[in-house]
Amino acid sequence: MMYKPGHITGKFRSKKMCGIDGCQRYHNSLLHNKILSKMPYQTGQRDRSVQPMLNCRLANEPRKQLFKMLPIDIYGPNGKYEILSMFDEGSAITILEEDIARKIGVRGQSHPLTLQWYNDRVVTEQSFKVNVEIGSRFDDKKFTLKDVYTVNHLNLTEQSFTKENFEHFGHVPLQNYSSTKPSLLIGLNQAYLGVTTTWIQGDNDSPIAAKTSLGWVAYGPTKSSTRSSPRVMVIKEQNLHKMVSDYFEADSFGVNPTSEQLESDEDKQARHILETTTILRPNKHYEVGLLWKKFPPQFPSSREMAERRLFSIEKRMHKDEKFAERYKEEMAKYVEKGYARKVTQEEVTESYAQTWYLPHFAVCNPHKPSKLRIVFDAAATANSTSLNASLLKGPEQAQPLMRILLQFRQGRIGVAADI
């Protein structure tokens, strides 16, 4: 006989009573609990595609044990909140109910998380990776939990604990709680919190009290029974839709063109500045903000450098009257069009951390000797700093050379233009 994953004895009825150790259930004696308890649980093929993060299982029979649950304080920007936590060595991650995260005011990066309940349903929800502080109820020690996942409902089992029911816990500082569900599941990534330094044990049918970094916690077998419904949960960080999408993206790599524009962080910053500062003036001209690497910029004094460059230009003007005349004409055009104005005496004497004096010089084209063009030198340096060094280059708008060369295979004639 072969047993498949998920097999349970309740599906196989026998006309003959078991009889082993007084068992009055109607099943074959080969299926008795003592034999089944020795059979290791194995997952089928369907489980292998899931990344198991948590496996918390309860039997559908009266249980006689306490899970490792402990009342603690959790802290956030909105203050302190009292919750019940649970240590689970079967969980690779730490999970917090989203309602608690909202109450203490913590928020983190959105992250997809899939919760699969066996024989029930599969739920994919947006989780948040948060960092929280927790502490013991009996001292002032606090511990920071990093990369904690939030879920809408942790849905762990409800548990009660009364210290007075156990004589060997008489002097142990354990806190009672009644019919409470854990809101925080502490996984293996926070294993140091569950390390036991001292423990107290009664007989083999009594729970153990263990001292951890978060205080004393009671867990293990008890002589009283409680009934709870079975719960099995498996969590994975990647849902099926994304896995299929990633597969096809890898399959078509280098074949299909991508609409996503690959940009560096600096280009993204420059594009954001362009999109947020570009405006159309009433005169139908556009105004664009400068692409500062850091804002506000900090400049050293540059007036002395600019004055030296100005004296050099004036010296040449004294030697060449035609050069001086054309230079003055070009500068007058800047004032006439509103590109430049004369600063006031107060502006000259006032000191600004963002002031930069921009030198300029003339460029003459040998093929157009009568035309003079003024160039503002943003590469001029003062104390090893220049205006260009404080600005981002911005995203590349020109066509890549490789694309231009490949386009010659599409048409016979290449066209170039200049503005």
Structure description:
- This protein is α+β, with helices and mostly antiparallel strands and 419 residues long.
- It folds into 3 domains: 1-38, no CATH class; 50-242, Acid Proteases (Cathepsin D, subunit A, domain 1, Beta Barrel); 265-342 and 350-390, no CATH class.
- The chain is 20% helix and 28% strand.
- The strands form 6 sheets. A 6-stranded mixed β-barrel has the order 2-3-10-4-7-6. It has a 4-stranded antiparallel sheet with strand order 1-13-12-11, with no helix packed on it.
- α6 packs across α7.
- The longest helix is centred in the last third of the chain and has 17 residues, at 303-319.
- The protein is elongated.
Distance between the termini: 85 Å
Global structural class: alpha+beta
- Would you state the CATH class of the largest domain? Mainly Beta
Counted by DSSP, the helix tally is 9
In total, the number of strands is 20
Query: Would you tell me which CATH topology of the largest domain applies?
Result: Cathepsin D, subunit A, domain 1
CATH superfamily of the largest domain: Acid Proteases
Q: Give the strand order of the largest sheet, numbering strands 1, 2, ... along the chain.
A: 2-3-10-4-7-6
